[in-house]
């Protein structure tokens, strides 16, 4: 697989993904709620989580319809978390993906409701009347619920909130980021894998891959927060530093953070090599893209 | 079934329910998140939705373990919606179930996160590793997701937000309340019914029962908002009137609203009578309790 093939796969996958997601997020939900939901989730973002679901499913030869639904579900969870995170009582941010944040565009109440409805919609799209075997629906709901809740994303955000201005050691920082970002990225990989038959070894390896990639993503996020400007990021740069939030850069320094990102990329690739799966090239290149990205 | 037997069933059911819920909502979720979640959902509330799930499941002879999990899930959704509803950007209420609202006690950010985590936990408790057949897990997740989202509760709240100070006809008011409150009450009945074998006729009748009961609940809520004081309600009375929100009382007048509540009770009981189910007495008495309650 060369870079051109990978780029083609990404472009094709994203075109299909955006079309399916567009069809699933209702424009006609009452009283402007649908517009706010669509604003928050359509037409923006790197779509890393959906690509992980789709690549992971393809690697195990799984149910492509189920994987596409899972890709939409995990992106809905991610997007709702950004809407709530950006609100004044949380990070109070006005810029996201180069656009005004949802509460700036629609008001705080509608933004909170849109986030709430997006979380419900995530589980709705995982449980269609047909196309996904009920046992797989249940498995996907379980994986998503656990990664989104108190043991995952929401728990990580609570630690994040409580840690502003406090020195954290690397171990606590890692736990916060594992929950806040890593668990949902890892769940994306595991949801894709659940869509097909995967050996215990393959499942374990994909889980290790997802864990390393999830942490790498956050380390790189912390690096970009201090090395890039807002125009490139599409969100407010220097935000964590200004808020006196502990980051990998503040705890380790920039050079050590960069070295850690490379080490985690190597761990992710080593996990794929140990999986026994025939073709993990897309997953490997996704790990590269996470570490090499500039926004 | 006399009133004493019913009271005994309610007391026994609630004792079991509170114990299970207590075990499912984590106290040790990070950075105070677990405390906020427990504050919001434990030790308060009428628990009408759980009782509907349990009574409906018993009526069809269903899986009691699954029904107890479903009862917890639906109460978590209800409780999270109250937490978010009470926040300053929504109803800005400081009193709930006779206690300070969650954001007053824990801050807005933690309250929003607790609500988010409670919604995720609802789907988590529906998808345990054992005790509920995967097909039933999927069915319960589907029913809950649809009733909580844009077509249900969240959509109703969006209409509610948009309708402050505007005259609504009874038809629009009914649609708002059906979504905001009715759909989740109806889903409680349907989730209980899904836990066992139910004929098409029984399922249809229980759905009709749930729809009538759901609407009756809201009509009575609107009546109590103007006839009771805050101490009896455990929440701020006269709130809807003060906010110039359309209610059944403002649209129909108090006497007609009371007559409507009685009519809906009769419809609920008629649906039970048409169900072909052997013993629907608990469901019938729950409908009575909804209409006759004073808080």
Topology, element by element:
The structure is a homodimer of 295-residue chains.
Chain A: H1 3-24, H2 33-41, H3 48-59, H4 64-85, E1 95-96, E2 99-100, H5 102-106, H6 108-125, H7 134-148, H8 153-163, H9 170-194, H10 200-227, H11 230-233, H12 239-242, H13 248-252, H14 254-273, H15 281-292
Antiparallel strand pairs in A: 1-2
Helix pairs in contact in A: 1-4, 2-6, 3-4, 3-9, 3-15, 4-6, 4-7, 4-9, 7-9, 8-9, 9-10, 10-14, 10-15, 14-15
Question: How would you briefly describe this protein structure?
Answer:
The structure is a homodimer of 295-residue chains. Chain A has 295 residues and is mainly alpha-helical. Chain A has helices spanning 3-24, 33-41, 48-59, 64-85, 102-106, 108-125, 134-148, 153-163, 170-194, 200-227, 230-233, 239-242, 248-252, 254-273, 281-292; strands at 95-96, 99-100.
Key phrases:
295 residues; metal ion binding (chains A, B); mainly alpha; 2 strands; homodimer; magnesium (chains A, B); two-stranded antiparallel ribbon; prenyltransferase activity (chains A, B); 15 helices; Isoprenoid_synthase_dom_sf (chains A, B); Farnesyl Diphosphate Synthase
CATH superfamily of chain A: Farnesyl Diphosphate Synthase
Q: What CATH first level of chain A would be assigned? A: Mainly Alpha
Helix content of chain A: over 70%
Q: Evaluate the radius of gyration of chain A.
A: 18 Å
Strand content of chain A: under 5%
Largest sheet of chain A: 2 strands, antiparallel
Q: What's the CATH topology label of chain A?
A: Farnesyl Diphosphate Synthase
The CATH architecture of chain A can be named as: Orthogonal Bundle
Q: What is the tally of helical segments of chain A?
A: 15
Structure summary, number of beta strands of chain A? 2
Give the tally of structural domains of chain A: 1
For the largest interface, the chains and their residue counts are:
A-B, 56 and 56 residues
Q: Spans of chain A of 5+ residues with little confidence (pLDDT < 50)?
A: none
List the quaternary state of the chains: homodimer
Average pLDDT score of chain A: 93
What general form of chain A does the structure show? globular
Structural class of chain A: mainly alpha
| H and E string of chain A | HHHHEEHHHHHHHHHHH
What's the end-to-end separation of chain A, in Å? 24 Å
- Strand arrangement within the widest β-sheet of chain A reads 1-2
């Amino acid at each position: 697989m060369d870079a051109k093939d990978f780029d083609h796969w990404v472009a094709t996958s994203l075109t299909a993904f955006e079309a399916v997601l567009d069809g699933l997020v209702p424009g006609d939900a009452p009283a402007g709620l649908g517009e706010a939901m669509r604003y928050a989730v359509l037409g923006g973002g790197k779509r890393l989580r959906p690509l992980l679901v789709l690549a992971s499913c393809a690697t195990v030869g799984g149910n492509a319809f189920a994987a596409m639904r899972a890709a939409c579900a995990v992106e809905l969870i991610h997007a709702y978390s950004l809407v709530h995170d950006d609100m004044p009582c949380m990070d109070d941010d006005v810029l996201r993906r180069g656009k005004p944040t949802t509460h700036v565009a629609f008001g705080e109440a509608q933004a909170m409701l849109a986030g709430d409805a997006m979380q419900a919609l995530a589980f709705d799209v995982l449980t269609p009347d047909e196309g996904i075997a009920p046992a797989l629906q249940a498995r996907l709901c379980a994986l998503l619920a656990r990664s989104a809740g108190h043991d995952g994303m929401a728990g990580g955000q609570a630690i994040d909130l409580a840690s502003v201005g406090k020195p954290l050691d690397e171990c606590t920082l890692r736990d916060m980021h594992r929950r806040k970002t890593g668990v949902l990225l890892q769940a994306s990989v595991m949801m894709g894998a659940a869509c097909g038959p995967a050996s215990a070894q393959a499942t374990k390896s994909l889980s290790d891959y997802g864990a390393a990639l999830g942490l790498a993503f956050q380390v790189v996020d912390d690096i970009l927060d201090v090395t890039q400007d807002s125009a490139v990021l599409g969100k407010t740069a220097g935000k964590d530093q200004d808020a006196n939030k502990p980051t990998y850069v503040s705890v380790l320094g920039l050079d050590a953070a960069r070295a850690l990102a490379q080490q985690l990329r190597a761990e992710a690739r080593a996990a794929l090599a140990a999986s026994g799966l025939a073709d993990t090239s897309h997953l490997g290149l996704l790990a590269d893209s996470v570490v090499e990205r500039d926004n």
